[in-house]
Amino acid sequence: MQKIMSSRAVSDTVNNALTAATATGTNFDQLFVDAQHNLGDQLKTVAQLIAGRTVLGNQRQIFFVQVGGYDVHQSHLSLHSDLMAELSSGLMAFTDALKATGHWDKTVAYTASDFSRTFTPNGTDPDAGTDHAWGGHAMIMGGPVVGGEFYGHFPSLKTGDESGSIDAHKGRGRWIPSTSVDQYSSVLARWFGVDSNSLKTIFPNLGRFDDPVSTTLANLRFIEGM
Description:
mainly alpha
């Protein structure tokens, strides 16, 4: 019974926040008319909850959205075309909604994934595709973001024992990332207000890498004021 009551209370709070978002006069349905898909629906709800944040009473908010379909081992060009279109339209609508409600300058959106792809395919078949690996790109956007740049250091694309290769799998192109997720995430945490002592607790391995802000080696000043 307690869980049911708690669920109803949360539901009421969320509904009140959505009502407050509607009261701003922003037409979220119109803004997301070109993003009527799974990711777009999630981002629209997030934009509405941000617009109705006074009802929630949070000083800081963290929202997670999730979209699948990226675990492709073949037919990358055709499948990624649709995936990128979904991502692009969803983020564009989300950006427009944040700007319309005056929250763009206070919001940072970022991507996270637990794997990337090897450089080389699984086999000789042209449609064999590539396999799981450890590195990849992260995309970051928002008002405080210093955009239009690449941050960190792009790894060598050499495989096997070639000079300069960081391939960890003898030719498959499973490379060791040149920038750790701890470095990338710690910049976001600092923007969020986490102090330097707490960073060591949240990211216990951070000390194993270059400081992403105070040194030029990591080159991760992607948020203004960091």
